[in-house]
Amino acid sequence: MSAVSISEPRRHRRLPLSAWVGLTIAGLWACVALLAPYAAPHDPGKILDQGPFALSSSTALLGTDYLGRDVLSRVIFGARFTFGLALLAALAASATGAALGIAAAVGRRWFDGIMSRTADGFISIPHLTFALIMVAAFGSSLPVLLALLATSYIPGAYRIARASAINVNATDFVQIARARGEGTFYLVFREILPNIVAPIVTDFGLRFIFAILLMSSLSFLGLGVQPPDADWGALTRENIEGIYTASLSVIVPAAAIGTLTISINMAIDGFFAPAASEVV
Amino acid sequence: MLKLLLKRALAAMLTLVAISAGIFVAIMLLPGDAADIVLGQASSEEARAALQATMHLDEPAPLRYMHWLAGALHGDLGTSLISNIKVANLIGSRLTNTLLLAGLTTAVAVPLAIALGITAAVWRNSIYDRAMMMLAVASVSVPEFLVATLAVIGFAVELRWFPALSKADASSPASMLSNFTLPVATLALGVIAQLTRMTRTSLIAVLDLDFIEMARLKGLRQSRIVLHHALPNAAGPIANAAALSLSALLGGVIIVEVVFDYPGLAKLMVDAVATRDMPLIQACAMVFCAGYMALGLIADLFSILTNPRLAHS
After folding, report:
1. End-to-end distance of chain A based on CA atoms, in angstroms?
2. What residues of A are in the B interface, CB distance below 8 Å?
């Protein structure tokens, strides 16, 4: 399933509409996360006069949560955790995975052996199970969350990068460059890396989605972001009693996750049309 | 062929042992030890020492790990720190419940997904196909708890067709329907979304081959071409994909059991994480990893069985 190909030459290509829609929605959420203090009508921790689980009104557009705080403001600030933390984790995973993968492809045999066996071992642990073990062992704090999300996705990113780099490493132009006497540094940065950017970026997009889903699930179980802070998963959980009366406070944060992940998926599919979404 | 399978199985066993050692190290890194967790902060030195001795905590770590491993091989997974009950006893009935949930989901999801995947491949690029694929992308992009929560809001709160909480009661068809419909549907959605896409891809790969073109030129009916010519050749990849997409269950079941308060193994593990009951967490994690790897092995088995090149190597 790991469709590995050398990047196509850069051509002027029109992005499909779905990719634009995806990019726009993801971009909007990024702006919301960045500008949260300006975008939010209330302080996310402030308890309003309406009381808990109040319905939508002019002061609280989406109603209030289980303590009487503004749901809209909390969703806006939650974007910082969901978007920010998952993005950092995916960046760390992709960068580390790519570096190790390329090193394994061009480096010594024993290094490749050790790295690949370790990756195989890590991949045999279901992500949520791994996350539960880590939270049980180290408690739940933002650094632990970041570290566990990143480590969860390094082995997958490593495999993609290694497979792509091995393919490129075997091509004639790399062999010629090697015969010319170019050093490893040149080979990696001028010959291999530019040609495996597409699979790595596609993979990064998918890791980003997975990280969002994993972190939200963990927070939903009460084991992720801890109060008073809340990401969208935690917001869904803390208001779950309001499901009968103020269902907006549950649906909106959960739906926010859906819009973000689907929009990223649409953007990736548009950029790297074939096989991009088949990587596990 | 047997050799290849044995090799894979052996590798899986070794990985499992490596994972158990990894979990063990993670637990060792904990500040304080199990005796602290059991006794709490205010405990006398003697009580601590006595408990440490009975729990073998005074032994060096590698020896303790060997103890645990030897016990695990005999089915003794240690004792829960919180409830002081044998872990094996705690897990037993919970595992049955989770397997029941997973089994029902498989029975619903796999045939449905394969049917959807085949029809999507046959009517490739039709509106039906595109709608199916968009739904599939949407379903895998959305967290399971959103699906579960929406299912509760829609079918338990608004329509009142099913209870919001599920008991592991499959004694009569009626109680089975009321207890399992929502959790199974939630779990099945993720599996169906993945498997439909993979089935479609596998079948399309075969439908593009020359012998299908030949069959078409001979004037065979479409249904015969698909069912008798294409499908047998795509069966291997599809079976492989089915085993792989079922591994999505291992994450989904954790969320679903918590949302529906279902007394399964995953709920047990989440509760154990909240109380930091390490022996219990370790045992549950091992069961999940073993299940995950078993599905991987089954997927391998299908590809080996249906690929003569692998089968005769």
Report:
1. 8
2. 120-121, 124-129, 132-138, 209, 213, 216-217, 220-223, 233, 236, 240, 243-244, 247, 250-251, 254-255, 257-258, 261-262, 264-266, 269, 277-278, 280
Tell whether A12 is covered by a domain: no
Closest chain B residue to the Cα of A220, Cα to Cα: B145
Q: How far is B25 from chain A (nearest CA, A)?
A: 10
How far CA A232 is from CA of A61, A235, B33, B108, B186, in Å, comes to 17, 5, 34, 31, 20
For residues A187 and A194, give the distance between their C-alpha atoms in angstroms, rounded to a whole number: 10
Q: Write down the number of H helices and E strands in chain A.
A: 12, 0
pLDDT per position as a tens digit, B22-70: 888 877 766 555 566 666 655 677 776 776 666 666 677 777 788 778 8
- The answer as to whether A170 is a domain residue is yes
Count of the separate structural domains present in chain A: 1
CB contact under 8 A, B157 and A223: no
Specify if A11 maps to a domain.
no
Chain A residues inside the 8 Å CB shell of B21: none
CATH number at residue A144: 1.10.3720.10
DSSP-derived secondary structure letter, B79: B
Structure tokens at A153: 């996705």
> A238, A186 in Cβ contact below 8 A?
no
**Which residues share a beta bridge with B86?**
B79
Cα separation, A9 vs A7, in Å, equals 6
Strand partners, A70: A64
Q: Which of chain A's residues have a Cβ under 8 Å away from the Cβ of B134?
A: none
Are B216 and B208 in contact, with CB atoms under 8 Å apart?
no
Domain extent for A160: 17-278
Nearest to B238, CA basis, from B277, B288, B203, B276: B203
DSSP A280: -
Is pLDDT at A22 greater than 80 in this prediction? yes
**Tokens (6 digits) for B55:** 């729990």
* Contact residues on chain A for B269, CB-CB shorter than 8 A: 129, 132
User: What DSSP assignment string belongs to A22-75?
Assistant: HHHHHHHHHHHHHTHHHH-SS-TTPBPTT-TTPPP-SSSTT-B-TTSBBHHHHH
Quick check: A153 and A208 in contact, CB under 8 A?
A: no
What's the rounded mean pLDDT across residues A131-139? 86
- Asked if residue A153 is part of any domain, the answer here is yes
CA distance A208 to chain B (A): 11
Residue B287, judged by CB atoms within 10 A of its CB (0-12, 13-18, 19+), counts as buried
- Tell me if B288 and A265 make a contact (CB, 8 A cut-off): no
Query: What does pTM read for this prediction?
Result: 0.85
Which of A116, A122, A125, A135 has the highest number of chain B CBs within 10 A, making it the mutation to test binding with B?
A125
pLDDT, one tens digit per residue, over A71-91 is 888 999 999 999 999 999 999
Chain mean pLDDT for chain A = 84
Distance from CA of B234 to the nearest CA of A (A): 15
Q: How many residues does chain A have?
A: 280
Q: Which residues of chain A neighbour B296 with C-beta distances below 8 Å?
A: 124
